[in-house]
């Protein structure tokens, strides 16, 4: 018998079982940021908005507006945010409502 | 009945002579119309005469006076019937076509005069009853056709084409004269009926010599390979109705000659005659269509296609002679019927195609396929008519080409009935070659119809073409004839069966048409089909989906977006296939035959030619001209040069010749 | 130019219902309006054995005439307008459009003389799939949302870790 056949029988089926289960390696995919709101300051928010290469972050008064649609998952905000920004792991973001992709995070922290 | 046939024939000839005379007044449009009207009347008379002749199944003889070489005898024999009908049909079609095609001019006057005489001469060839009448008629036909081709003698290529036509016609004529001379001297009579009766007593070698000479001589006129080189030179340069006349009828006179010798005058010849004929026919068919595929000039393409079809007809004749020689007389007669039927069919649709090519040339000013395109929108009715002609010549049901080629294949496939295995295999090989030509012909005609009519116009002239004032009645009549000859094939074949019965003495009616309008190939239980029912069936098969569509399509508004083109910005005519590229697969496959010469010249370094023109010259090897004709011409010239000193111009030498000849004559007389 | 029909509420619902009917056999045509081809690479992987979109009843087709759904990538470069609108027009109704990737949703490139920036400035988009590029799992989720076999839970997602009262975590789909 062909070795690839036997190998396949040994290793089993490799096709993902999505949507029944989600593969574990997706945990490490680049994804949108999540924020510790109490550690966000206005200055930090401004800096993050300025540095976002995709234009996904913007500060509107006391809120940080995150456009999940524009986010590329580059992780620059995570690197710059100190501990305020983490990878949310949210990568299943398909929606029919564009507005639902625009999230608002209140800026809880203060600059001093 | 016989009186009617004779009377109609004379009426046809008289009408055509009248048409020729009326043509002299063609300096004005009324003259053209008068000539056309008389020509049409003559044509109708000829058609009627031919049909009556075929149905009646027996000939009639007309004698005119007596002269130094006997009376001018005209024997209207049944074998000529299909050709007379074809002559009449072509005459009517041309007559319907002429008024809108020809400009009133002095050149037209001469042309119509000569054309009328050519019609009469062709009729005379078909009904000639003795050798002298035949030869005089033949030569008149050749000369008048030569003048026909020269209508536009100042245009390039015309003089050369006409010259080639005449030169090779004369070579053939010499051979025909020799063949008839052998027959006349060996049988002691100039009358064709008498010759046919007595030819059986000739020795085998004289018979063989006569037949081979006739085959080659008539082969020159028919356009068999390798005697064909005048066809692609002459047919394209004649006016459209002249080309139609040449391709539709004149080459069939060569076929008539071969059939006359093979089945009537020298009937019951040995098998090798048939095999030789069949071989020439099969080779002509394959080479004809292969060279046709390389042509960009529409009329040259049609000329090569004529060579291909003549090959098919002659193959049928040859196979018929072979079967007869081996005792399978029914199949032999069947194949003779096929040859006659295909001659009729090809005459009809080739005339149609040449007339339509004339319309295209008239309205766009070009015959170059690579400059045409999109004509189906500009010339809608002509496009439909041309489509019918193309489908017919590509041998697709339900038209006449399909029926005759089916019959030919069925005849050839019965090669296994011959006792000699070798001959049987040769016949089937011929069948295979004809099958190859059938496939290539479909390719060729898809290209010949698709490139000019479909797609986008490739030149300004094609985009501005218009159908106003273009002749339509003649081609339309021929399209209807194609349909009739195909769907009404049982009727036509019954008439042709009577012709064959009169010519070869075998009646195969019960083995040709069985009840329910089915055609069978001279043998029950081999195969069979009904062209009439097939046509009805095809109509039903097309109608049922249409009915379902119209009944079941959604009632509400539907959206009709444009054709999906891949999303490109705009489609340019230069993005389409050209005629040259469309034939590329064939060219690559048969490169060993074509041996093309290619020459590429760039005026700049840019391979895409953006900063300067690129010249590409492609030429197919003219095989027969270079390796057959040119050496022969050179040999003849060498001989002539060697003989030149005889004609030195010195009077004293000439007197010496006279003296020597007188002395020799005296010695001969004395002893 | 080609008319893009305005959407009414009822028409929208009917269309979604129709697309849902295609849930078991949906033909997809991808249109690239100037992307970097990362989204195309992920789309191509969908046909590979690891993700195998055929088991879900989805098929790629090259001809928009055969398509039920257009997946558009790229920031809608203006030079591709003609091709995109022709493809949209050639797709028979009922049809749906999915905008795939951050570029198609308006990220990375802003609107200027050379591009529209977001696909929904040119065509009516039914489903948006963010990502750069969206992983094939995300693409599958997007397709299943488009045909109604999965619900989209984005509305309930919160990025504020301090007030995580979301009804569903983003990983449970």
Describe the protein's topology:
The complex is a heterotrimer of chains A (112), B (671) and C (173).
Chain A: H1 3-11, E1 33-35, H2 42-51, E2 57-60, E3 63-67, H3 76-80, E4 85-87, E5 102-106
Antiparallel strand pairs in A: 1-4, 2-3, 3-5
Chain B: H1 2-23, H2 29-56, E1 60-64, E2 72-76, H3 81-101, H4 106-127, H5 131-149, H6 158-187, H7 192-198, H8 204-222, H9 230-234, H10 240-265, H11 271-292, H12 298-325, H13 329-364, H14 375-378, H15 380-393, H16 400-412, H17 421-453, H18 460-463, H19 473-487, H20 489-504, E3 513-514, E4 518-519, H21 531-552, H22 579-582, H23 584-589, H24 591-594, E5 597-602, E6 614-619, H25 623-643, H26 651-670
Antiparallel strand pairs in B: 1-2, 3-4, 5-6
Helix pairs in contact in B: 1-2, 1-4, 2-3, 2-4, 2-20, 3-4, 3-10, 3-13, 3-19, 4-5, 4-10, 5-6, 5-10, 6-8, 8-10, 10-12, 10-13, 11-12, 11-17, 12-13, 12-17, 13-15, 13-16, 13-19, 13-20, 15-17, 15-19, 16-19
Chain C: H1 9-21, E1 26-32, H2 38-45, E2 58-60, E3 69-73, H3 81-90, E4 96-100, H4 101-104, E5 127-129, H5 136-146
Parallel strand pairs in C: 1-2, 1-3, 3-4, 4-5
């Amino acid at each position: 018998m062909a070795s690839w056949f036997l190998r396949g029988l040994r290793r089993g089926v490799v096709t993902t079982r999505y949507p029944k289960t989600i593969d574990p390696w997706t945990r490490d995919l680049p994804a949108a940021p999540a924020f510790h709101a109490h550690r966000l300051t206005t200055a930090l928010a401004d800096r993050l908005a300025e540095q976002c290469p995709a234009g996904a972050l913007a500060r509107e008064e006391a809120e940080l507006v995150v456009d999940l649609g524009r986010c590329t998952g580059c992780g620059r905000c995570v690197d710059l945010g100190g501990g305020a920004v983490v990878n949310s792991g949210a990568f299943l973001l398909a929606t029919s409502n564009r507005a639902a992709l625009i999230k608002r995070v209140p800026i809880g922290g203060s600059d001093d | 009945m016989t009186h009617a046939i004779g009377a109609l024939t004379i009426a046809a000839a008289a009408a055509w002579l009248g048409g020729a005379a009326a043509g002299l007044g063609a300096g004005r449009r009324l003259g053209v119309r008068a000539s056309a009207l008389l020509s049409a009347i003559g044509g109708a008379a000829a058609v009627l005469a031919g049909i009556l002749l075929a149905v009646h199944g027996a000939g009639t003889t007309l004698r005119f006076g007596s002269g130094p070489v006997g009376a001018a005898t005209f024997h209207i024999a049944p074998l000529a019937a299909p050709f007379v009908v074809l002559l009449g049909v072509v005459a009517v079609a041309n007559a319907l076509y002429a008024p809108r095609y020809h400009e009133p001019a002095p050149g037209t006057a001469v042309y119509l005069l000569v054309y009328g005489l050519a019609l009469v001469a062709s009729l005379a060839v078909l009904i000639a009853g003795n050798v002298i009448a035949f030869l005089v008629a033949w030569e008149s036909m050749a000369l008048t056709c030569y003048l026909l081709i020269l209508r536009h003698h100042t245009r390039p290529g015309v003089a050369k084409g006409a010259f080639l036509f005449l030169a090779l016609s004369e070579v053939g004529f010499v051979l025909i004269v020799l063949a008839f001379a052998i027959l006349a001297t060996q049988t002691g009579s100039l009358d064709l009926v008498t010759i046919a009766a007595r030819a059986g007593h000739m020795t085998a070698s004289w018979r063989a010599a006569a037949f081979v000479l006739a085959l080659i001589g008539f082969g020159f006129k028919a356009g068999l390979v390798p005697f064909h080189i005048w066809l692609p030179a002459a047919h394209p340069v004649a006016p459209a109705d002249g080309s139609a006349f040449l391709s539709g009828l004149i080459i069939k006179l060569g076929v008539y000659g071969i059939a006359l010798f093979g089945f009537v005058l020298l009937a019951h010849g040995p098998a090798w005659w048939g095999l030789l004929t069949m071989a020439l026919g099969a080779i002509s068919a394959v080479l004809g269509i292969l060279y046709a595929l390389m042509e960009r000039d529409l009329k040259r393409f049609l000329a090569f296609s004529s060579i291909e079809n003549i090959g098919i007809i002659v193959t049928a004749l040859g196979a018929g002679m072979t079967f007869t020689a081996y005792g399978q007389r029914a199949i032999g007669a069947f194949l003779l019927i096929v040859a006659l039927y295909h001659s009729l069919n090809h005459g009809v649709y080739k005339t149609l195609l040449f007339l339509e090519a004339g319309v295209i040339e008239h309205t766009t000013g070009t015959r170059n396929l690579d400059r045409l395109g999109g004509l189906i929108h500009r010339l809608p009715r002509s496009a439909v008519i041309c489509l019918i002609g193309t489908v017919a010549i590509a041998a697709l049901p339900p038209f006449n080409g399909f029926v005759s080629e089916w019959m030919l294949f069925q005849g050839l496939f019965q090669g296994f009935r011959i006792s000699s295995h070798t001959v049987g295999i040769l016949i089937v090989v011929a069948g295979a070659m004809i099958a190859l030509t059938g496939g290539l012909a479909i390719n060729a005609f898809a290209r010949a119809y698709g490139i000019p009519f479909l797609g986008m116009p490739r030149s300004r002239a094609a985009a501005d073409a218009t159908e106003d004032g273009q002749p339509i009645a003649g081609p339309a009549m021929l399209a209807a004839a194609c349909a009739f000859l195909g769907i009404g094939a049982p009727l036509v074949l019954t008439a042709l069966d009577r012709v064959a019965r009169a010519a070869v003495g075998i009646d195969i009616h019960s083995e040709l048409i069985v009840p329910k309008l089915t055609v069978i190939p001279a043998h029950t239980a081999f195969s069979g089909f009904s062209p009439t029912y097939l046509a009805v069936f095809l109509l039903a098969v097309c109608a049922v989906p249409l009915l379902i569509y119209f009944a079941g399509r959604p009632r509400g508004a539907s959206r009709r977006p444009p054709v999906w083109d891949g999303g490109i910005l705009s489609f340019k005519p230069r993005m389409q296939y050209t005629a040259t590229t469309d034939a590329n697969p064939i060219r690559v496959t048969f490169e060993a035959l074509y041996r093309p010469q290619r020459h590429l010249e760039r005026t700049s370094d840019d391979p895409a030619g953006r900063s300067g023109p690129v010249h590409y010259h492609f030429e197919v090897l003219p095989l027969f001209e270079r390796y057959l004709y040119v050496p022969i011409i050179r040999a003849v010239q060498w001989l002539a040069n060697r003989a030149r000193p005889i004609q030195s111009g010195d009077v004293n030498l000439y007197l010496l010749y006279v003296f020597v000849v007188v002395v020799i004559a005296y010695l001969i007389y004395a002893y | 130019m080609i008319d893009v029909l305005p959407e009414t509420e009822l028409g929208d619902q009917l269309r979604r219902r129709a697309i849902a009917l295609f849930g078991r056999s949906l033909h997809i045509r991808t249109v690239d309006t100037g992307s970097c081809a990362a989204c195309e690479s992920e789309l191509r992987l969908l046909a590979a054995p690891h993700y195998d979109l055929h088991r879900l009843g989805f098929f790629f087709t090259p001809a928009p005439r055969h398509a039920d759904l257009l997946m558009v990538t790229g920031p809608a470069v203006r030079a591709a307008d003609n091709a995109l609108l022709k493809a949209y027009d050639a797709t028979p109704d009922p049809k749906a459009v999915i905008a795939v990737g951050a570029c198609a949703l308006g990220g990375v490139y802003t609107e200027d003389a050379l591009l529209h920036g977001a696909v929904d400035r040119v065509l009516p988009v039914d489903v948006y799939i963010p990502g750069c590029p969206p992983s094939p799992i995300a693409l599958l989720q997007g397709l299943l949302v488009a045909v109604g076999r999965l619900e989209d839970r984005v509305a309930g997602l919160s990025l504020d870790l301090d007030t995580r009262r979301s009804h569903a975590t983003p990983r449970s789909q």
